[in-house]
Amino acid sequence: MWSLTFAPLVPMPLLIGLAVLAAVAAGMALVLAGRSAILRALALTVLAIALADPSLVFEDREPVKDVVAVVVDRSASNRLADRSQQTQAAQAEVERQLRGIAGVEARTIEVTDQQGAGDGTRLFEALASGLADVPSERVAGAIVLSDGLAHDAPATAEALGLRAPLHVLTTGREREIDRRIVLVDSPRFGIVGKEQNVRLRVVEKGGPGRAAITVRRDGEIIARRAAIAGETVQVPVRIDRGGPNVIEIEAAPLDNELTLANNRAVITIDGVRDKLRVLLVSGEPHPGERTWRNLLKADANVDLVHFTILRPPEKQDGTPINELSLIAFPTRELFQVKIKDFDLIIFDRYANQSILPLVYFDNIVRYVRDGGALLIAAGPEYSGAQSLARTPLGQILPAQPDGSVFDEAYRARVSEPGKRHPVTRDLPGSEVEPPRWGEWLRLVGSRARSGSTVMTGPGDRPLLLLAREQKGRVALFLSDHAWLWARGFRDGGPHLDLLRRLGHWLMKEPDLEEEALRASARGRNIEIERQTLGDNPAPAIITAPDGSTRTVPFEPGRPGLFVARTAASEFGLHKITTENLTAFASIGPENPRELMEVVSDPGRLQALSEATGGSSRRIGQENGSGVTIPRIVPVRSGRQFAGADWIGLRISDSGIVRGVSISPLFVGLIGLAILFGALVAGWIGESGRRFKREA
């Protein structure tokens, strides 16, 4: 390819000035001297051209193909209904047409929602990455095969950075039906025992305008509501326990709905306990009383109410009441009026001495069965006639006394069930036999009748029993010598670990549940942990966001713990169930953007594509499974690259320069001869004009 270039021998402003002066002089000479001055003007022109140093340049160019990006959306929303089939058919037809256009190279860029790490479909990030190694002048255009639901679309064509037309071929149907839940306001924290309000809105296309809503907390239905599409609904949710409370809100499905994944929204509200209220009633002063008090007072989250019975009824000596400095035991206020305000009631070496009427023990039984917690730390009184087992409390206690008391040195041991229970599993010192802790000196004999015996004394007799009573919990400690560990008797023992775990289990700490299912996300994997006192738990059933299910077996871990690990196939909330337990694991965000809005829409990218000279159109046929693809034609000039039945590509005729040869026109003898010839011609012309005038 030939071209003419200039390399001026003098600065360009000087060359321009000389050219202007030469033109003015030639013009004046033409006026004054007539046509003979044309030769002088020619000589000046040749001089100006010589100073401009013109050259002929020949470029050895190798043509290169322009690149067309074919962006194929493989995200979850573009796999709904028959969109996958439409995408495949459209891709095959587009690539077939591009193969028929000379000088064009098709580059396929596939996009999945996994590439956005749960942040939706990142079409334009993938487009920019796929064309990063292509000069902008070689990009002929981009053809996007998608449902139109891109979550990274730039606001303007300038921000897109594409100097070629963008064409969007939209899959899906015109009359699609879908219903989804949009969270308007959702709290992240809540006080245990209090309600939090969740505000949401039902959005639907093609539905009746009303929807039934079901609210679940940790898999259990807690409310049902009716909602009008487009209106904000407020749903009160009670925070039932500390730690994560998984709230699932689900709208009833529509017939022929695109997907049910967006009919559900999930919120995790962390329950925070305001204050744990504990009532400690000591039946008499004894060395272990201070151990319980110190333990509970050391916890800033515990609000402790402690009473010690100093004057039982048999110690009446006739002293007038107004001369006593003791505070009266407020039995009615504690065990009738405010009993439900307590999270835990502890009777420490308490004997039934008619201080509490039997009706108050009935109140305690109801309190436990309604969800309260009771701990009996028993001493010798538990085996006698004044035992709490002989009150109405006996019907909820896990062991009945047999009348014996063993006053002998022994090492408490963790039982086989105790090795599985979170309260006593891995107690420091229990990993060896005999346990590496000090001895106790007393045990109250009993017969276990319910619950789990997690620690034993001499002769494998029950020492610590844990039981559930309807909604509540009961613990029975059959020794009053835990304080020996606190005092360091014979090297002491892990009294803080044991008593704290015991108290937190009674108050329903989630991490100490003996029957629990937990799940967590580790990258793209789901890790499942099953806590149980039994053997061979049932496999876990995992329900993916798209509704598909699969079964994963557990493998043994530590005593009482079984584990499973599996890879997740997609982003979103996965529901894990086994027996009557439910857990959730979120891969990516809990409510992924990809499935929040799934109705296909050519209008979403229409303004952007038209700003580049391209177009956005639907290709799905309403009455069939096929697609209608416009003709693809090359366009070498113009700003519009789309019509009613065609889309265009900007052809640049680009090439790679393999070599360059330069031939100067006014250098050496050739330039000198031309300049000399122009001067001689001017001189001859002037001499001839003078000769004629003299003749």
From TrEMBL:
InterPro entries: Class_I_gatase-like. Keywords: Membrane, Transmembrane, Transmembrane helix. It comes from the Bacteria. The chain crosses the membrane at residues 665-685. The keyword Transmembrane applies. This is Glutamine amidotransferase domain-containing protein. It comes from Bosea lupini. The lineage of its organism: Bacteria, Pseudomonadati, Pseudomonadota, Alphaproteobacteria, Hyphomicrobiales.
